[in-house]
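Protein entry
_____________
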Amino acid sequence: MRWILGLVIVLGVAFAAIAAIDDERRVALVIGNGDYQYAAFLPNPVNDAEAIAEKLRSLDFDVTTAVDLGRDEMEAAVLRFGQESEGSDVVLIFYAGHGIQMDGENYLLSVDAQLEGREDLRDGAIEEARLHSVFAFVEPELSLLIMDACRTNPFQGLLGVEAGLASGGAAKHELGSSRSTEDMMIVFSAAPGQVALDGESGNSPFTTALLQWIDYPGLEVDRIFRHVRRTVIDLTGGQIPWVESSLTREAWLRPPGPDEQIDSFESLLAQVVASFENPLEREAAEAHFRRLIPDSRLLEETRVASSGQIANDAQSDLEALRWLSIRRSEDPAVFENFLDAFPEGKFAGLAREHIAELADLLTNAGGSTDEEMAFAPASGEGPLDTDVAAEPALQEASLDIEALSAMETELGLDRGGRIAVQQLLAVMGNYTGALDGAIGPMSRAAIAAFQVDAGLAGTGYLDIDSLARLVEAAAKPALAEEADPNRRGAIHGLAAVARFGPGAAPTTIRVASIARHPEVEAVWRAVADRFEADNPGYPVVFDSRLGAEYKAQLLGMLGSETPPDILFTWGGGHLRAIAHAGFATDLTEAMAAGWAFDYKPGALNNLIIDERIYAAPSNMSLVNLWANRTLLDKAGIEPESLKTWEGLLDAVTRLKAAGVMPIGVGGADRWPLAGYWAGLALAIAGPDGLDAALHGDAEGFEAPAFVEAGARLKDLADMEPFQANYRDLSNIDAVRAFIGGWTAMNLTGDWAYVEMSRNWPGGPDAAAENLVRIPFPPTDLGAGGEGSTIGGSDGWVLRAGAPEPALELLEHLANLEIQTELARLGHLVPSIAGADDAIGSPTLSAVATELTLSRHHQLFLDQVLGPQAGEKLNDVAVAIVDGDLTPEDAAAEIERAWEDARPTLTIDATEGAATSETVE
């Protein structure tokens, strides 16, 4: 009874709070200054202001919006707003534009600010204190001041003032004992003295994050800005929004909605497992499921019965996982390759059946597919349209030429569009003239002929119906053949008009990624070209940037006027930030329906956030200990001995005795040293121990296993195994030193193998003989070594709100065909087991097989922990090696950082409101 009474009281308080929200009077002043007369133009503040104003109106604010204000206009707007806000319960002021701090005071610059000295501030800006005076006058229940004004200061050098804005309200001395100080929050887009990013054209990174979180249902106000801070930090690489708060109570901008129950990825996937009709495939799917979610009991609940046909050994597991990944292919060669690998396997019969079925389809189609049919667009070298007499049928008096011409003119086709019409007519075999955009007698005759063939009236003039028919019939083969980007664009433009009417423009699908090798990007482009042919009117544009640049600029890209529709992601904290902020489309239902089984369990598992999947896997990576066999032989070391930690330590001793530097490491990058700590932690704690620490169970990262990991790393460091200048070298420097024979071993990922193989003394053949790969972590330390791997898992995110066809492109970018091609090039290890056969290198093929069979693929811990806690892990590992931290203190520092960053976001139905620890 006491429990029920307590629940009633809690629910009563929550419902009372919601009722109070409904009765609140909310007002907001939103100012955006960007068109500065004497300072650098800012493209985003006006956009920021308008977007925030629209969002606040949806939250029942009475909003006053003012943009590009002069000094007097700003003063008048603030005064008028204060007078009109009297009696309001919630008062919010948002400012975007240039700001400046001087002597601890913050000033917001008007667009007519002309500052040559400090004395000019009074005439070109208003003090932050002026905004505080509104709160002091109105004395609302909640005061919010949000300033996206920490951008590059155009007058900093001239006035000799500091960058960014100063901490705190400059008007504290004026507020005194004002009641408004009790429930006030001041939010800066960057920390005191820090410069915020303005972003790309659209919205600033801070405003972009704020737009994602400010209307989150049931999220209490102070937690809104903790989420905003985390999103900005994670997706800019370091900009830290700053919040100063004197809130004494909980407050919501949007009350909690109904607690909707949705099926988890685990539940949906279990249902799909049960739906497999073939018993052998169902058993393979069950094994995949148990690798992906080892602790699940849902298969028992759905009463999936194992057929018992698949043996419990590595070869059988490998065959089953590869079969699952190729079973949906429509390429007979894929199944023939599978038979070459497993000629007597359990799935050989199914492979032969697929080959026969595909052969029947090809025969019934007349021996060729649509893609193989030859189309021959006109070359543009034919006779000019004006040289050909009109067909008599086009001169019949019964045609209302004036009306037909007017209808065609309404389509609004420019010269490029008219050339596209001629090109499509040429594809259909109706036109053989020049592609000149002059719609003369020859083009008219071709249009009429096409119309008649399509069952339409042969008028020789285009209307929306005949244009739509022409695009439907000819745009795909025309795009498949056309390489010129201008002509491709014109065809897409024609398709847009045909689909949506005159004036419509193509819908560009934008893909953002980290820069890869040109061969990789060429494969992406070829996939996009094929997609465009299947989807006229949807051109694809790629934006590739260097990894660090991509990570720092992604939030700006997402807030731009042309945000990416598909975007590369690392697993762990990066994807978590994108998903929690609402930028990612939930792919759970789409992937669980079938194509989730294409991927290696370890690839998929690291892209699941809050039991939902938000990315399609693209590639994987594996951390290995690489060794030079020649140098090992010099010290009498067998490579097999390096699989244990004690064997590694013994090798260090013997190599030093032989005059060989044991290990190269890029200490300047820090993460290579953290890789040792993470591998040791996985080996000692095991997957369950790591999972417990990540979820805050028991002692977290201060548990004995993690202290022991630090102690083992300290044991290694005390042996002085690294080159003397290891703190000055990057990872690539250390890899090159290893290639050159200066060190005997190097811990790095498989991505370095191409560099090592191509540059090894004597070339790839010598590398194949002398380069030894040892799986890491070591196998003798505890629960995690055997069967576990550690490395990366990357993927593609579909942006929430992306055009509908973008999902199809996402599938193409992550499917078996493209991963097979990339594996053939040797640049990426695929996340689809069926693509592994295309890998030419025996070393990388072994890596791929190990990743396929891994019982637990642990994502890089710094990626799991996210930017702040992950950076702390990297720093801690270096400090252990340098002797600056004990293993106990190191574990404590990691735990403290993770406590601040641990990601949880749940709707607690018993409280009727969102409850959240910081989303980090």
Notes: DSSP finds 37 helices and 23 strands in the chain. Residues 671-694 form the longest helix (24 residues). The chain has a mean pLDDT of 87. The longest strand covers residues 616-628.
